[in-house]
Every structure is written in C-alpha cells, then in structure tokens.
Give the backbone structure.
Amino acid sequence: MLEFSGATIFATRFYAAIASAQSVGASLKQAKVMMKSGFLDDAKLPECVARKGVDVDKLVLVTNALETRSFHRLQVLPVDGATRRTN
C-alpha cells in the first residue's frame, strides 16, 4: 500500500501526464520516477496490470484539442499586408 506522501506524488505526476495526452504506460513511468526522486526508494511502486491485448504504452485516455483541431493557416501578403486564410 502506498504511503500518503507517495500516493500524493504518484497521483500528481500520473494524472498530470494523463491530462497532457500521454499514454498510460508513459504516465506510470513518470510517476514512478517522481516517487523515486522524492526519496521514496523503499516505497512499494505501483504496477500496471492490463487485460491481454491492451498495450498501455499506446493507450491514451485524452487527446489534446489543439492537435486534433484543424486550423487555417494565415498567410501575410507582401503587397498590402492583408491576411487571408489558406487551406
């Protein structure tokens, strides 16, 4: 069982990574590194157990809206400085 400080460190890093659209596997690795760097070497580190066929290193729970949204590029025209949308 995680101690309170270990659980706090783990949850903070793990959920921050999940929220930034990183995979569950990458988020878990980051959280473990933070726990170790927080002088919790003797803490029991969490382990990920996944169903057969689930690759946690590819499993992403959220997506970054800025990456999925299609933006129009703005092009500056040198003649009059006006801008126009291009696709």
